[in-house]
Design goal:
The chain is an alpha/beta fold. The protein has 18 helices and 25 strands. The protein binds glutamine (GLN).
């Protein structure tokens, strides 16, 4: 039976609990264990799909079409284990299930309550489909002390009681702040956080202490004594230069060793960390650098493009170069044409990422045009591909009014809403005015690539599967006109109906994809499109 590692956070948010979970899982994996990571989100949205990227960062989409928390992206990037719908649950989803059951009369007249009904549902979620695993890591979102997370803490308390000490371990991530005026690290917030947690019946076995400065032995001993944790199990966690060094750093501080020990397992041989050493080597010893301009809407908040940012870094690792990302607000282009050249000329590659809504789209279209005319490597993702088609329609096919129905009624719907498509479950249908949550074309879909295309060379195959999240699609009725304008439709859905990839054969590197390749890129397995794009940018850097 799988063992459970429950991860809570204290003092403040943004302590890197997700990265800690991902790193611990990677370390256990490096010791030969089979792992899976899950995330419990205490908010009431059923999933983050309808939340603004400004509020919640990127929505991470899984193969099975779930719209999940961005931490699942870290989990996948660090472990290579494909996340699933069943790896992310919110309070909203739990309550939705319980209320539906109550309306059906499934509770047979009982009063439906947080304990036991909500806590039972949380426990079921934690334990579902874990038969073939060694460790299940469950990260609880939020901070201990939040009203919203109480049912989750109660559920893990019950699980410890039911499964026993040798099946469950509690890891608590806290902050040990440095007070500059006193020149000291302060352990009191950690003590209070652990006190709060123990009042809820959860005594942590391992404490991960985020700190900006080296944690002296004296402070470590103090935390151990006040928090009732062995001194060796108080793990200092200083900021790392790169997130990909975090597993090595945690290993150095004994995290995986202490977690195994807490289970009563005697750690065997040292973990095989060659993969992580190779990644660190590529990061620290680049043989060149490129600058990529990302022309997007949510550039103020990097979490909004988390996977994209990482995939570009992976593309750099594949080529042993440093990638500088220049986040460019698409709206500034709408102020005047002159700025475009000045801003984009220093870029070795231009990327227009996914997005929703009309704001900033004219700026994105202008950047596509710049990349096409100046022969700068161009990569369009999802909305970015749609922009590449609208740009092509307007400027190479003479369709001046080309637009997307996403931006309002148009006489030239080069991009239009998709109302029908084939999925593994059969024909999917959507109404134009339907629900927004969970109704896009979501998750993994196959695509067929033209044998002689640039993308087939890049992928090294003509059959691919990639993850999608979109409601609109390039309109096949315009294919001929766009192809005459030089845009080749080099990837299509297997039934030949939905355009998946466009490219310009007369351009060194111009590719637009309807899917999100960034979601599948890993540091130890960079996505071929990102590796190819950075290689092309490197070529460009040598030219200018
Ligand atoms: N807004 C576009 C659509 O729904 C693109 C979506 C995206 O970029 N993820 O099709």
């Amino acid at each position: 039976m799988a063992r459970f590692i429950f991860i809570t956070g204290g003092v403040v948010s943004s302590l890197g609990k997700g990265l800690m979970a991902a790193s611990l899982a990677a370390l256990l994996q490096a010791r030969g264990y089979k792992v899976r990571i899950r995330k419990f989100d205490p908010y009431l949205n059923v999933d983050p799909g309808t939340m603004s990227p400004y509020q919640h960062g990127e929505v991470y989409v899984t193969d099975d079409g779930a719209e999940t928390d961005l931490d699942l992206g870290h989990y996948e990037r660090f472990t290579g284990v494909s996340a699933r719908q069943s790896d992310n649950v919110t309070s909203g989803r739990i309550y939705q299930g319980i209320i539906a059951k109550e309306r059906r009369g499934d509770y047979l007249g009982a009063t439906v309550q947080v304990i036991p009904h909500v806590t039972d549902a949380i426990k079921e979620f934690a334990k579902a489909h874990t038969e073939d695993l060694d460790f299940v890591l469950c990260e609880i979102g939020g901070t201990v002390g939040d009203i919203e997370s109480l049912p989750f803490i109660e559920a893990i308390r019950q699980l410890r009681n039911e499964l026993g000490r040798d099946q469950t371990v509690f890891v608590h991530v806290t902050l040990v702040p440095f007070i500059a005026a006193a020149g000291e690290l302060k352990t009191k917030p950690t003590q209070h956080s652990v006190k709060e947690l123990t009042a809820l019946g959860v005594q942590p076995d391992v404490l991960v202490c985020r700190c900006e400065h080296h944690l002296p032995e004296g402070e470590r001993a103090k935390i151990a004594a006040f928090c009732n944790v062995r001194k060796e199990a108080v793990i200092p966690a200083l900021d790392a230069k790169s997130i990909y060094e975090v597993p090595l750093q945690y290993h150095g501080e004994g995290l995986d060793f202490e977690v195994l020990r807490a289970f009563g397992i005697t750690p065997g041989l040292a973990p095989d960390l060659r993969r992580w050493h190779d990644i660190a080597d590529r990061l620290h010893n680049p043989e060149g650098e490129v600058t990529i301009g990302v022309v997007g809407k949510y550039v103020g908040l990097q979490d909004a493009y988390k996977s994209l940012n990482e995939a570009l870094v992976h593309g750099g690792m594949a080529n042993r170069v440093k990638v500088n990302i220049q986040w460019i607000d698409a709206e500034i282009f709408e102020r005047g044409d002159a700025e475009i050249a000045a801003l984009l000329e220093p870029m070795h590659g231009i990327l227009v990422p996914g997005g929703f809504g009309e704001r900033g789209t004219e700026g994105k279209i202008a950047s596509v045009r710049f990349a096409r005319e100046r022969k700068v490597p161009f990569f369009g993702i999802c909305l970015g591909m749609q922009m590449a088609c609208i740009e092509g329609a307007r400027n190479t096919a003479g369709i001046d009014e080309a637009s997307s129905t996403e931006f309002g009624a148009t006489g030239e719907p080069v991009v239009g809403i998709i109302t029908e498509w084939m999925s593994a479950e059969g024909l999917q249908k959507r109404a134009a005015g339907g629900d927004l949550g969970g109704t896009m074309r979501l998750g993994a879909y196959d695509a067929k690539l033209a044998g002689n295309s640039h993308v087939a060379t890049i992928y090294g195959t003509t059959a691919i599967s990639e993850r999608h999240r979109h409601r609109y699609e390039v309109n096949g009725a315009y294919r001929e006109a766009l192809e005459k304008g030089g845009l080749a439709f080099s990837g299509m859905s297997p039934d030949g109906l939905l355009p998946e990839i466009v490219e310009r054969p007369d351009h060194p590197w111009f590719i637009g994809v309807q899917f999100h390749p960034e979601l599948k890129s890993k540091p130890f397995d960079p996505h071929p499109l990102f590796a190819g794009f950075i290689a092309a940018a490197l070529q460009q850097a040598r030219l200018v």
